[in-house]
Amino acid sequence: MQRVRFGLELDGERGWHARDALGESTVGPLGFLSLLETQLGLTRAAPSQAERVVQMRECLLAARTRGRFYERSFETDEMGTAATLLRWRDQWYEHGWYGTVTSESGSRLQDMAVVEALARPKVFPSVGERLNDVREALEQCRMQVDVVELLQPMQEFPAAWRRVLERLPTTPVTVLSETPRTNEGTVLQALQCALLQLPLGQPVGKVRWRDDGSLRVVRAESPLAAAQWLAAEIRQTPAADCVLVIEQAGSTVDAALAAMDQPLLGLCEPSDFRPVLQILPLVIRLLWEPLDFRALMQFLTHPVGPIRFYARRRLAEKMAATPGIGGEKWQHALRDIEAHYGTEGGEVLADIQFWLEQSRFTETEQVPLAYISQRVERLAELFRDGMADEDALGRAPWTAGYYQAMALQRVLHSLEQQGVQRIGPEPLNRLVSQASSYGSDNPLLGSEAGAYCRVRSPGAVIDAFDEVCWWDMAAIPLPSRYPWSPLEMQGLRASGVDLPDAGLVLERQAREWLHPILAARQRLTLMLPKSGAEVHPAWLMLSSLIEQPEVLDIETLLNTPDVDQRTTRIAHRPLPALRRWWQIPAGAIHGWERAASYTSLEQFFFNPYQWALNYPAKLKASALLDLPGDFQLLGNLAHRVVEQLYRQPDALSWSAERVRQWFDQAVPKIVREEGAVLLMRGRRADLEAFRLRFRRSLTVLHEIVRGAGARHVEPEKPLEGDTPLGALRGSSDLLMTLADGTQAIIDMKWAGNRKYRDKLANQTHIQLAIYARLIERNTSVWPAVAYFILSRPELLTSADGVFPGATPIIVPGSSTALLWERITQMWQWRRRQIESGLLEVVLEELEPTESVPPGGALPVEPLDPRYNPFVYLAGWGREA
Predict the structure, then answer these.
(1) pLDDT digits over 403-417, tens only?
(2) What is the 3-class SS of 300-361, one letter each residue?
(3) Distance of alpha carbon 323 from alpha carbon 292, whole angstroms
């Protein structure tokens, strides 16, 4: 005997006990339709929703007369309009439509009938049309089904289903018991009696609350706490006859079960955010001009991609410093990549050229479909290779990516057949989203043996269970109103469309909410969301029947005597506290022969713990790469402009006007190659502000250089040499040789007029002193030193008479040579401390101790914590 239990809420659910019965099926609409089509020989390969939308688009396009109701929306968003009207059409067919309307129907319905005449042979059948085919086949064939048990009244099924069911042997089955299922005299039994009386219209009194264990109402202040509590309950009674009602956030429950080594329920939703499924959308975002550099950085740092890993990583490092494609630094990165891959280097460079050095298109000109197809086909090949993995777990994401790429490829082919040659960003993004709509399951999070029965829809609980637990009774969306006017609704009814009244839909939904409550035989557990959150309508109904229900906060269970049975105690280990000094073994840090730079010496002098973690310990900050911030970006661009200006052979002879002309010609190229984020949408104002501000600053700088009588300028001059501090190296922004043969150093800063003025006034301009010492080592003459502030042009110098028009900052009795002596004393003092095993932690929240630099050394100043990646390794809280 072939028996089928059929209900509207049963697809993908497990709200009944497994039965050891041959020839018995419990199915929902999709499952029953598949069974019917299989037995009748009507199975077919279903296309993606994106393909059906494109098919509908063709029909809407052909039906245009400049008077159709949808045409204005269609001109703005073809794919969105097609998707909406396709959804209307599918809904009508499921509720009984045959594709025609009466002559009295409104203009919108008349237009839809015209479209339908075109769509019927072109658009892949909807569920309603497939049911119509099944009904026609049943007139000639007999199903191998002896009885179909209907778990809802016949009138609640959509019209297309009713027409099929009328040709099958059906019998109604009562899911809800007419008598309470639980023990006599319990609060749960009283509640079930009250709920059974509600549909009969009988007066219902309040249910008096009693803590007899048959009804529990608990609340958690977070879904995570609720999930952990539920997982602990399941671990205590793993073999209980229980069903879980989990309408939303089921993946949180599965995560808690996994943490407690319990069988998973399989509630993880498919996601289109799996890594492999992200590649195609990123590739599409790279097609447009201006280039989206955030998408490019995501493409390069993604764990998978069509370009090899080292090449992506190297280019991402380049983008993090100088975002742009082309130019000297881009070519340098390409040479590194080619050398890394050796004989395969040419192939890797060809991939980079294909994916990154491609033509790009504006929204106005749009992108050719053939151009997109090339890239989608290359991705499909990549995914196809991944599908060769013998491990099912490794193969699953590549399979999902392949189906996503092929779905979009078929859509593009359909558009080409419709005569479409180009497409804009919005419809293309919509097609990609629809091609990815099913997402990808995580093979590790499927349902496991021994898991509790569970449902997402309360109406899917169709058997009685000893225990029912309704998890997280938060508010749920209610059915929305139909988008058609009363006149159109009347026209649809006249055309055979039997859409259920909104009130009847709500009534059926409310009746389904009773299923879990009436199914409980021994205990019902209701879990409420946090205080103040909107609750489920079912709880509003129940709370109106129960007199002063007692709600137990899950967090209070941590104080109960049986807490040890529910939790695992972990010994408290406080975080290390902040302290001014770290003690390490004497001589643990060595390697003083390594070359140092200004950056390392600054940390060595002013925050030794930061220096120790950064250099001797070689700890590295997160490897996550990102685009540079505005401060760094604008500073880098300004430095690059100055460098290129003074690499021009005759730049020193140029007038201010000639510099401005060169600037206007050079900056667009420099920005494209090293600061192209300023060309992105929403950044043009920032680019113009930079251009106007720095154009003036560059002119001021050039006049200063010429006024000083410079006969030679070396930008980004490498400096290195041996000193009492060991080997030092650095790079001066501008090294000028003056007319009398002396030299001067200008270090450029984007901002900080007051900060660098104070450095000169306080004789703490260490960077300039180090560069000056490296020059003096070769020339025996100390050069003049200066800062130039780029954003607000100002030259700050301690040299008198070198830069005409600049007011020097003179400190009596000081000089760069004396500052170098102070630096040397500071270095010797810190080295003695560190060799003895002491590392000072210099942070603003820590009071200085007896550690005082020797007379004449530099004062200790806290460094900016924003540039200290180890700030949280120093400790937390107050100083111990």
Answers:
(1) 999 999 999 999 999
(2) HHCCCCCCCHHHHHHHHHHHHHCCCCCHHHHHHHHHHHHHHHHHHHHHHHHHHHHHCCCCCE
(3) 11
